[in-house]
Design a protein that fits this description.
mainly alpha
Length: 68
């Protein structure tokens, strides 16, 4: 289903169902944010323990991020 089709489907929902959908999307975003924060914390702890990436790993990740 395309985003446009999804928007059309949402527009047909009742006000109550749109509120439920909105609450679901907020919850989904909060879970995503929580997962992200946990991953950042894990990585920071590893770095604090001296488990850092090598220069080769850093350069490889940098090249990958530049490609988009």
């Amino acid at each position: 289903m395309s985003f446009a089709e999804l928007k059309d489907q949402v527009a047909e929902l009742s006000a109550e169902d749109r509120l439920k959908l909105s609450a679901f999307l907020i919850e989904l975003e909060e879970q995503s944010e929580e997962s992200f924060q946990q991953e950042v914390s894990r990585r920071m702890k590893n770095m604090d323990m001296g488990k850092k990436v090598s220069m080769e790993q850093f350069e490889q990740r940098h090249r990958h991020s530049e490609r988009g």
